[in-house]
Amino acid sequence: MHRIFAAALFAAMIGLAAFPASAQGTLANPLRPRATEPKPPETAKAAPEKSGGATAEKPKRERSAKQKQNDEDMRACGASWRADKEALTAKGTTWRNYLKDCRAAKKAGRERA
């Protein structure tokens, strides 16, 4: 069993060795640019028509109320973090811990109202 596997592996290695590295693709250096013909300069092309006559861009979906509330909380917590960053980091508070506490305080304030 092991001899058959070893023979198949050996045959595969010999088969790969027969091709130059540029033809193998995966063994070529991806950081070294390949010698190719120079590309012609790009000209302004019209966007191809999509089938069905659909518009070029799909309109963005409206953000939900929770997403908008999260945006407001992130902006408010971020502003207060930046204002007190030196004092908070001196106490050993990280942004993640501060954000967790800030969000909890904002949530508690909304629930009271």
Largest sheet: none
Computed Rg: 30 Å
The succession of helices and strands, N to C, reads: HHHHH
- What is the average per-residue confidence, as pLDDT, rounded to a whole number? 79
Number of discrete helical segments: 5
Which regions have little confidence, pLDDT < 50, spanning 5+ residues?
none
Helix amount: 55-70%
Indicate the overall shape: elongated
Terminal-residue CA separation: 75 Å
Structural class call reads mainly alpha
Strand composition percent? under 5%
> What is the count of β-strands?
0
Annotate the secondary structure layout:
Layout: H1 2-17, H2 21-24, H3 65-83, H4 85-90, H5 95-112
Helix pairs in contact: 3-5
Using brief descriptors, characterize the structure shown:
113 residues, mainly alpha
Structure at a glance:
This protein has 113 residues and is mostly helical.
Describe the structure.
By secondary structure, the protein is mainly alpha-helical. It has a domain at 65-112. Helix content is 56%, strand content 0%. It has five helices and no strands. The chain has helices at 2-17, 21-24, 65-83, 85-90, 95-112. The longest helix has 19 residues, at 65-83. 0% of the residues are buried. The model has no long low-confidence stretch (mean pLDDT 79).
